[in-house]
Write a structure and sequence with these properties.
Elements (H helix, E strand, L loop, with lengths): L4 H8 L3 H9 L7 E2 L5 E2 L2 H15 L4 H13 L4 H37 L3 H18 L9
Antiparallel strand pairs: 1-2
Length: 145
């Protein structure tokens, strides 16, 4: 079955302009055109588009996604190259995930601090420490009025 760009936009949640951008960026060379010149997406195209969106959502650069698609288009002999590309990207994603987990832990710590019965005292202590550090280093102190 062939899908129009409008149908694909609805199915994927992507804007039509995004799909056109992906096409112009060389990410959709597998999408055929019908006799009128309109893009005609297949179920297989939607599966590849799903992978493209996954890679984009995890921060892969357009050039690297294009390279991945080129490897897909080159056929099954490129499986090892695809694996290497995705393994390297996975390492980046895991590192980012760990960074986000550390940041989330800091946010949770602050939320617990602000929710504690002695929140004002803890905030005052934090404020005093920041203020003293500025004065100690001879910097302007935005913490004092």
């Amino acid at each position: 079955m062939a899908y129009s760009i409008q149908t694909v936009a609805k199915k994927t949640g992507l804007a039509i302009s995004t799909l056109r951008f992906y096409d112009k960026a060389g990410l959709l060379p597998f999408v055929a055109r019908d006799s009128s010149g309109y893009r005609a997406f297949t179920d297989g195209d939607l599966a590849l588009l799903h992978t493209i969106v996954c890679l984009k959502n995890t921060g892969m650069k357009i050039a690297d996604i294009r390279r991945y698609i080129e490897l897909v288009m080159a056929g099954p002999t490129t499986a090892k190259d695809r694996q290497a590309l995705l393994a390297a990207h996975r390492e980046v994603v895991v590192a980012k995930q760990q960074e986000i987990a550390r940041s989330l832990a800091e946010i949770d710590y602050k939320l617990q601090m602000y929710a504690s019965p002695d929140a004002e005292a803890k905030v005052a202590q934090e404020w005093a420490l920041a203020s003293a550090d500025k004065e100690k280093n001879g910097l302007p102190n935005p913490f004092t009025a």
